[in-house]
Amino acid sequence: MGEEWSSVSVPGLARPPLDRATKVLYGVGAAASAIKQRGLSAFLMLFYNQVVGLDPEQVALGIFIALIFDAVIDPTVGLLSDNTRSRWGRRHPWMYAAAAPVAIGYFLLWTPPSGWESAPLFGYMLACLLTVRLFDTFFELPALALGPELESDYHGRATLYAYRQFFAVLGGLGMTILVYQVLMPDEGGRSGLLLGREGWTNYAVIAALLIFATILISTAATHGQIRYLHMPSRRRVSVRTLVGETVATLSNRHFLIITIFGLFVTISVGVKYSMEIYFNLYFWELTSRQLALIATVGTVCGLGGVLYAPHLVRALGKRNAMVLAFIVLTTTVVTPISLRLLGVLPLNGDPVLFYILLVDLGLHGATSPIITILTVSMAADVVEDSQVKTGRRSEGVLLSADDLLKKLVSGVGLLISGVILAAAAFPKGAQPGQVPAATLEKMATLYVPIMLALYGAAIATMLFFRLGKEQHDINLATLLRQTEAEEAEEALR
Predict the structure, then answer these.
(1) Burial class, 224, CB count within 10 angstroms (exposed 0-12 / middle 13-18 / buried 19+)
(2) Residue 231 in contact with residue 85, Cβ under 8 Å?
(3) pLDDT tens-digit series, residues 346-400
(4) H-run or E-run covering 394
(5) Which of these, 68, 117, 340, 442, is most buried using a 10 Å CB contact count?
């Protein structure tokens, strides 16, 4: 029955060049995950700790449980997505199914009941978090897996994923600006509205609607490409066979390197994002107006980084561009806090301090999207490298690691953040300017070496990656010869 639908893939049907509108609308989908991810990374700890009243250890435990859940769900969805046969192809049924549940789950996460004790509140948070994780995987993983099929060229992939990152920057930092400037602006010179519930309810409504809309827009925009995409063959296989094929796919050397690298990157980013609001509100004592300006500058610089990333790849190659970008990123993250601990920077409230932080965070904002684009693009290049060795296209299985690692941003990252805050004895319901100096110093002295260790490990791992343009072109040529041979053999039958 599925073959009667015009959207079913047609073997041997040549794909016309992907038009820019489709590339742009494909990229729009990244905003959904970015809105969700930025919220979980930057605001979840503050909301459930300072607004709702859970201990940071409880929030961290909930994130850790969700991480274990992800470790099972992500590769499972990747495997099922790779082997789905339907009138809407391998990926789109999963993507359509995700839109409403993930939006509803995200809304409920930020609107917990009032007056509950910590145990039921913890259970509520965990249930919402697992719902969001599950259905976000239904969309984000198949959407990422579409990329290698939509664009096979080495440099073209960097450009395609730049479109995704463009909207990820707009979604993530755009919602941050909305929080600081519109929904919860300064109240009497302080960021008091951040610690009340009303603003977060408004945030939940807007974020949920945007997540729902961007998922549907991106999925519908790529629906017309289904007929050109790979369709897995009909076969009956055992669980043992599927597990064996998955292990063979994930044993690819380049995949293991990019996975280990991504592990360090995303954990470090998770620590940074979840601790960032504590440093901004309590360590630097910035106002909501200043935070909004920083987010605005970060957005502009981030979009600049997105536009520059493909040119950097052409000049240096993906690996060398990644190492350079990561060195710059490391410098921006640890330098201001280290200088404050050394007593070098001006006191809080000094305009000079704010402009120093503005420049530093602007540079960070420009560098972060470059790293994200390169990470996903390099992971996509592994698809053909694996196919040459295994004879199977397994984008879902391979990129499930990328999706899982992005969730580690708010997983292990939040777990480490919770440990830092607990070790520093950070008080509940704290107001800016009233946290003991010893607490802030302890928080900073724990944070800096942890970040340096994670960043250093990431850079060292990336130096072992060897899959460049030359090898990628060889892989594409090999696959083309194999396809032509198979078609010629089929024609003789």
Answers:
(1) exposed
(2) yes
(3) 999 899 999 999 999 889 989 988 988 888 888 888 888 888 877 776 666 666 7
(4) none
(5) 340
d(CA 64, CA 350): 39
Cβ contacts of 489 within 8 Å, gap of 6 or more? none
Q: Token digits for 375? A: 């990470």
Q: Residue ranges of the alpha helices (H) in 29-83?
A: 30-38, 44-46, 56-82
Per-residue CA distances from 70 to 64, 80, 178, 371, 404 (Å): 10, 15, 29, 23, 6
Q: How far apart are CA 235 and CA 224, in angstroms?
A: 26
- Burial call 430-455: b when 16+ CB within 10 Å, e when fewer: bebeebeeebbebbbebbbebbeebb
Q: Which amino acid is at 444?
A: A
Angle at CA of residue 215, ends 370 and 401, nearest 5°? 50
Which of 44-58, 95-109, 351-365 shows the lowest per-residue confidence on average (mean pLDDT)?
A: 44-58
Q: Where are any strands of DSSP class E within 64-197?
A: none
Extract long-range pairs of 450-455: CB within 8 Å, 24+ residues apart. Answer: 450/271, 450/416, 450/420, 451/268, 451/271, 451/272, 451/330, 451/333, 451/334, 452/330, 452/334, 454/264, 454/267, 454/268, 454/271, 455/264, 455/268, 455/326, 455/329, 455/330, 455/333
